[in-house]
Amino acid sequence: MSKKGILLVNLGSPDSPNPKDVKRYLGEFLMDERVIDVPLWARNLLVKGIVLNTRPKASAKAYKKIWWEEGSPLIVLSERLQHKVQGKVDFPVALAMRYGSMTIKKGIQELVNKGVDDIFLIPLYPQYAMATTETILVLAEDIRQQHFPDIKISDLKAFYNNLDYIKVLSKRIAKELEGKDYEHLLFSYHGVPERHIRKSDVTKSHCDPSPKSCGKCCATTSPAHEFCYRHQCVEVTRLVGDYLNLKEGTYSSSFQSRLGFDPWLRPYTDRTIERLGKEGVKNMAIVTPAFVSDCLETLEEIAMEGEEIFHEVGGKEFTTIPCLNDDDEWVTLLAQWINEWARI
Ligand SMILES: C=CC1=C(C)c2cc3[nH]c(cc4nc(cc5[nH]c(cc1n2)c(C)c5CCC(=O)O)C(CCC(=O)O)=C4C)c(C)c3C=C
Ligand SMILES: [Fe+2]
Ligand SMILES: [Fe+2]
User: Fold this and answer.
1) Which amino acid residue places its CA nearest to atom 40 of ligand 1?
2) Is 314 in the same domain as 182?
3) Distance of CA 244 to the CA centre of its chain
């Protein structure tokens, strides 16, 4: 009889907000060929030659602004989620990060030490992307083959269009916006270079993530959508819009956190916030459904920088909706998916 266990996997954070730790963390993260997907020589030049000599100081400053006494918000919130899920299922639940000290190898080892040989790996990302889900699954399989050849690992597929997930997310948004008179709700997703979308297109001809396509491909049914991050993001916006009965024109999608000079998914969040303010929107709300846990990108880039941009162009009320974090209904849904997997 096999023994089942659960491995939750999130992105990771530096060990501390000090430049040395941030540099080590960014080095591992940005040298991942699925994050900066250029040939090794070019990645070495770009990351080790340029980014790691300039960015860690600025990033460390940003991390310091959001760091909690207990540690990185992303790690602390993921741990709270792990503990709550553990309280709802009969299988051991471990937590690991793709980058940093809480490695996937340690997470698997922790489960194996408890006798587990059948693991359900849950990437904590609603949408599939080469830079998130794919890199986790590839690394987990490498580790399994090298160190734990006798165990089985299966994974939870991207759940962006799961109607139970949409319901939990929508209810959370509605609760946060209760009594608030907002004019526009912006769904801001972490960006990726347009090139990533083309690379993940299994049909090799469907996806055109450039603004000139106006997202037409994402609205046209295709097998490419199983791996199209852009499609999966705009679907979340559409499904939540439908669920909450939002009025056309009062909500939209944008993409944040671009890095470097290549074109990333558009419209960009910072420019969208600026445009909305310039068009006279006084009250706006923003939700970040590419993240399951609040992190640097939501707490600093959106809640601080985003609000500043909005105020600079005349905006007044800027409401940031927290991620699902350890929301009770989210925990219940994860437990339901785990139990469904265990019954297979
Ligand atoms: C350079 C390329 C990057 C790609 C592609 C990318 C994709 C991607 N990232 C997330 C989620 C998170 N990213 C976070 C931080 C972060 N991301 C990048 C770069 C890329 N991300 C950098 C350089 C950083 C570090 C911070 C900085 O220096 O500005 C985080 C926050 C981590 C934390 O500790 O709080 C998350 C979460 C997704 C979902 C994604 C593609 C879909
Ligand atoms: Fe990122
Ligand atoms: Fe598409």
Assistant:
1) 190
2) yes
3) 22
Domain with residue 172: its CATH number is 3.40.50.1400
Average pLDDT in the chain: 97
What is the distance in A from the centroid of ligand 1 to the CA of 86?
A: 27
Question: Could you tell me the two tokens for 236?
Answer: 């979340």
pLDDT greater than 80 at residue 221? yes
Residues of the domain holding 85? 4-159+327-343
| Three-state SS annotation for 66-109 | HCECCECHHHHHHHHHHHHHHCCCCCCEEEEECCCCCCHHHHHH
What is the average per-residue pLDDT within 13-39?
Answer: 98
Residue 128 has pLDDT above 80, yes or no: yes
ipTM of the complex: 0.93
Site residues for ligand 1, CB cut-off 6 Å: 11, 13, 26, 30, 35-36, 55, 59, 72, 74, 125, 129, 131-132, 190, 192, 229, 257, 259, 290-291, 295-297
Neighbours of 238 (CB within 10 A): 18
What per-residue confidence (pLDDT) applies to 40? 98
Please give the number of the atom of ligand 1 that sits closest to the Cα of 55. Answer: 28
The band of 312, judged by pLDDT with boundaries at 50, 70 and 90, is: very high
Annotated binding site for Fe(2+): 190, 297
Render pLDDT for 250-270 as a digit per residue (tens, 0 to 9): 999 999 999 888 999 999 999
If one counts the domains in the chain, the total is 2
User: At 273, is the pLDDT very low, low, confident or very high (cuts 50, 70, 90)?
Assistant: very high
Q: Which two tokens stand for residue 202?
A: 């299994």
Percentage of residues in the chain having pLDDT higher than 70: 100
Q: Does one domain contain both 167 and 57? A: no
Of ligand 1's atoms, which has the minimum distance to the CA of residue 297? Answer: 31
Whether residues 260 and 174 fall in one domain: yes
Residues 284 and 309 in one domain: yes
